[in-house]
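Sample pair:
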Amino acid sequence: MESIITGEDFEGNPWGAGVHENSLYFMASGTMYKADQDGNNIELIAENLGSPLEIEIDHKNETVFWRDQVNDIIKRMNLDGTGEEVVAEPDNFSPIAFTLDKKNDRLYWTRYNGVLVQSSLDGTGATDTTDIDERNTFSNVKNLSYNPTEDLFYWIYDGSSIERQALTDTTFSLAFTEIQPTSIGYDAGDKKVFWTDANRGALVMYDFNSQKDTVLADIPGLNNLTPMDVDTSSNQVFVGSSDVISINYDGSIADTIEVDQAGSFSGIVADAENQTIYFTDNASSSFGNLKKVNYDGTGLETMIDATLNYSRGLSHDPVNNTLYWASGFQADDMMISRMDLETNNVAEILN
């Protein structure tokens, strides 16, 4: 990861950014700028825009929306800097978060009194859609987003829960609350999200079809480093706990694979094509190992012994048959490394 634009490139710090037709648009200190996607050729588009806190680009109409946190309004203008106008302003309660339904050309925002409002993109025809917060306050809401396919809103409340609301409903519901996720995986085809939940000490699945979350299986020894990976071809989730635990989508334990790890798992990936699990572990005496084992528990092999230097995470590139991991303990030895699984050669690609 590299910083392509910093506050040294212009006056102020960036507060919101979006991309349209290979150009990067961003707000900083009341000014909108345009640059190429490498951060070069910075161009000033418009000034005196207030205090933008968040922005969203309407690609179809080539406009940008932003919320001015000081003046408590939502504004928009063309991407060329013309046509600036206010589209939402306080009547009795200020707008605090907004999102666009770009498919149907609608603007949604929340008020401090806990009401969701909708209007045309120009702000006309504003109506209170529904009171979606029985607490009668949205003071801690952020990241309001809308899924037009499912007609659902999601937002983060108070930094501790993710909440959900259907446009046709009259009360909000808690999508995920009181959770402590340690790792996450997904199956896009089956519309499922999985996470290891330290609060419940278990593997949890959320099904977007039924809109329900289910505790699949208890995970012994689960902690804030417990990693997992999903094999969508066999409908299994592999969790690195005291051993490698294979869990079916229905919650049954497919297998517990003893792997003689040196310490806590720090990364795990499943190679579905070759039925192989790769994982890293860390212990004070070994400083990290890279190992592999077959799905059936055979073929346990140490590929790198005691030299990973506190590895963090593991990723598999099946197209190029490579592994990637991060490691390091102090700022001067942090790095990302890559292993070619054909030759087992390791290269440092980022320090």
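The longest strand covers residues 264-271.
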